[in-house]
Amino acid sequence: MTTRTSWRQTLRPRQWLKLVVYSLLLVNFIHYFLDDIERARHVAHFGWGWNDWTANFATTMDELAWFMLLLVLELETYLLSDGAFTRGRVAALNFVKVICYLTIGHTIFVFAKYVIDLADAVRIVDTHLCAFADQGLSFTRNLAFWELNATNCTEPSSNNEFFLLLQNQAITDAQGMVIEYELAIADLIEVVVWLVILLFIELMIKIQDRGISSNLFLSFATLSKSLLYGVLWLVAGYWAFRGHWIFAWDETLWILGFMAISMNLSDWRKELAVK
């Protein structure tokens, strides 16, 4: 493999910045885990199986998989020297990657299925929300949940059109349904875009491992990643628009984290070019 070590001492400020970003991402992971627990508290029921539990905690699993991939990429593009890439270590890194890819694939499946499920949600018209009070349902809108009872059923919505969601464990009105669908689409777009970015990074690593510092694909991949980051900024903007500032903040951190990986690759290419 081509050396990645000669420029380390000149990048200490950047490495401190990366450490801060990675630490903040770990804090965000804890936030998402707590969010998934809260969601399960409202929608879990005795009929849930393994698939239901993993679907509920898809965001937690996805965040953990991406965090592990980010660390592996940092090892591959910066932290490990050429001599550290023994056959056993390479196999171990590849094994971690496969597990992470399978987890991300599961997330894409869950998010896509949820979009389809929303299209098939049970629609109920000409009724009042209090008709569903004390039935074990939670009202949801914009990812917030309220347990419905006879005391609070007049507060969340005065509409007369409702939709049953999440295996009929939650209910929302027409406005909430629009928001739920938009957020589901945003989730699906985000995870697919990140997967494509990861594919470009993996291919760039393979090419640069061969000592190639410049070719048409590397230029195309660099430009494509920039455009894809633009899509992610738009997704972050939508989350901010809906008031989910923690999601927008998390997206910003992930973009910065993977841009740091891109900078590692860029410095690696510069070193290859002067040889």
Shape, please? elongated
Order of helices and strands: HHHHEEEEEHHH
- Whole-number tally of structural domains: 2
Helix content: 55-70%
Mean pLDDT figure = 85
Number of strands: 5
Counting DSSP H or I runs of 4 or more residues, the number of helices is 7
How large is the share of residues in beta strands? Answer: 5-15%
Task: Supply the helix-strand structural class.
Answer: alpha+beta
Distance between the termini: 14 Å
Strand order of the largest sheet: 1-4-5-2-3
Major β-sheet, in short?
5 strands, mixed
Rg over CA atoms, rounded to whole Å, is 22 Å
Low-confidence stretches: 1-11
Please tell me about this protein's structure:
The protein is α+β, with helices and mostly antiparallel strands. It has 2 domains: 11-120 and 181-273, no CATH class; 122-175, no CATH class. The protein is built from 7 helices and 5 strands; from the N terminus they run ααααβββββααα. A 5-stranded mixed sheet has the order 1-4-5-2-3, with helices on one face. Helix 4 (87-119) runs antiparallel to helix 5 and helix 6 (216-241) packs antiparallel against helix 7 (245-273). The longest helix is centred in the C-terminal third of the chain and has 36 residues, at 174-209. It is elongated, with a radius of gyration of 22 Å. The model is unreliable at 1-11 (pLDDT under 50).
